[in-house]
TrEMBL record:
Matches recorded under InterPro entries: LOG, LOG_fam
Top enzyme class: hydrolase
Sorted UniProt keywords: Cytokinin biosynthesis, Hydrolase
EC numbers for this chain: 3.2.2.n1
Native source species: Cohnella suwonensis
Name the record gives this protein: Cytokinin riboside 5'-monophosphate phosphoribohydrolase
């Protein structure tokens, strides 16, 4: 594994622990000689994780759509910045560059990015590990929702193994490094 794609909020959240865990994750990414791939912003948890990687001597690649955000949001200290035409190109390039994914707390954009890579994994488009840094149980409702999808017959139980939930950055990184994708089964109940 060489590159970790991190999805994260463009705000820091109301608890300082969100920011602290983002910084710890960034420091850990750099200490493992991994590179960070992310959305290219200098603000919010996105900016904090990027700053932590850079401060620790690591490499950071940002991917930002042209003319979508105000120029002052773009991080000016990145190792590399790719400007793309739109959000679809952004996500495609981030995924192409990444060997794994981690979601920090965030809002709608973070949720959308997370669910897209989980869905791609379920469909066999990639076999990359997808981790969730569950700071202050932020993602617990999503973990429960996935279990409810299995219980209600909308998702196969093996697909719960497509996402690694962990509260501490080091434990999450270790699980990502040692990730073995679950055996894929037919996702369509009516076709079995």
């Amino acid at each position: 594994m060489k590159r970790v794609c991190v999805f994260a909020g463009s705000n820091v959240g109301l608890s300082s622990e969100y920011e602290q865990k983002a910084i710890q994750l960034g420091e850990l990414i750099a200490s493992k000689d991994f590179e960070l791939v992310y959305g290219g912003s200098k603000i919010g948890l996105m900016g904090r994780v990027a700053d932590a990687v850079l401060t620790a001597g690591g490499k950071v690649t940002g991917v930002m759509p042209r003319n979508l955000f105000k120029g002052e949001m773009v991080h000016s200290g990145l190792t590399e910045l790719h400007e793309v035409g739109n959000m679809h190109e952004r996500k495609a390039l981030m995924s192409e560059l990444a060997d794994s994914y981690i979601a920090l707390p965030g809002g709608l954009g973070t949720f959308e990015e997370l669910f897209e890579v989980i869905s791609w994994s379920q469909l066999g488009i990639h076999k990359k590990p997808v981790g969730v840094l569950n700071v202050l149980s932020f993602y617990q409702p999503i973990a429960e929702m996935l279990k409810q999808a299995v219980k209600s017959g909308f998702m196969q139980e093996t697909n719960l193994g497509l996402v690694i939930f962990e509260e501490e950055p080091e434990l999450l990184i270790n699980k990502i490094i040692n990730y073995i994708p679950p055996k894929q089964v037919n996702k369509w109940n009516e076709l079995t």
